[in-house]
Amino acid sequence: MIPAGFDYVRAESVAHAAGLLAVDPDAKLLAGGHSLVPLMKLRLATPSALVDIGRLDTLRYVRDEGGHLAIGALTRHRTLEADPVVAARAGLLATAAAEVGDPQVRHRGTIGGSLAHGDPASDLPAALLALDAEYVLTGPAGRRTVPAAGFHRGFLETALEPAEILTEVRVPAGVERFAFAKFRSRAIDWAVVGVAAAATAGGIRVALVNMAPTPIRALAVEAALAAGAPAAQAARLADDGTEPPADVNASAGFRRHLARVLTARVLGELAPS
Ligand code: FAD
Question: CATH 3.30.465.10: does it fit domain 57-172?
Answer without folding.
Answer: yes
